[in-house]
């Protein structure tokens, strides 16, 4: 159905105003520098947020890892307060003596080799 003629004339006036305003819209001289500065600031802010999240993730992973290592060490290490009662002290001393026995045997072997080298013409 056709619109009344007076309504069409009303829109014609509005369209004429919009067309005329199109010639008045101009970007300001500092528009490009402002847009670039805003883009740089937002980019830097996103980068900083990523860095913070990465550091937080590393700290959380280190916390989980250190707690698991600590629990493993607590399970593996016997209590030290009962060393004399359980004979652990004696076992540790014997192990230390075994270690020194090994050192002494290597020292003796080295002396034997040195003596053999001195005898060779």
SSE run: HHHH
**Helix coverage percent:** over 70%
Helix/strand/pairing category: mainly alpha
Overall geometry: rod-shaped
Oligomer: single chain
Strand content: under 5%
Spatial gap, N to C terminus? 128 Å
Largest sheet: none
Q: Give the helix tally.
A: 4
* Uncertain ranges: none
Task: Return the average pLDDT rounded to an integer.
Answer: 78
Return the domain count.
Answer: 2
Calculate Rg over CA atoms. Answer: 43 Å
How many β-strands, per DSSP? Answer: 0
Mind explaining what this structure looks like?
The protein is mainly alpha-helical. It folds into 2 domains: about 35-75; about 80-120. The chain is built from 4 helices and no strands. The longest helix has about 45 residues, at about 30-75. The protein is rod-shaped. The model has no long low-confidence stretch (mean pLDDT about 80).
List keywords for this structure.
mainly alpha; 4 helices; 121 residues
Provide a quick synopsis of the model.
With 121 residues, the protein is mainly alpha-helical. The chain has four helices and no strands.
Describe the protein's topology:
Elements: H1 5-22, H2 31-76, H3 83-86, H4 88-119
């Amino acid at each position: 159905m056709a619109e009344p003629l007076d309504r069409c004339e009303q829109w014609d006036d509005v369209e004429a105003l919009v067309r005329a305003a199109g010639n008045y819209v101009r970007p300001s001289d500092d528009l490009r520098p402002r847009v670039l500065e805003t883009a740089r600031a937002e980019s830097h802010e996103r980068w900083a947020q990523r860095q913070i999240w990465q550091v937080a993730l590393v700290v959380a992973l280190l916390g989980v890892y250190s707690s698991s290592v600590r629990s493993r060490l607590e399970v593996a290490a016997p209590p030290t307060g009962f060393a004399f009662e359980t004979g652990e002290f004696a076992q540790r001393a014997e192990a230390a003596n075994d270690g020194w026995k090994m050192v002494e045997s290597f020292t003796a072997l080295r002396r034997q080799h040195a003596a053999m080298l001195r005898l060779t013409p």
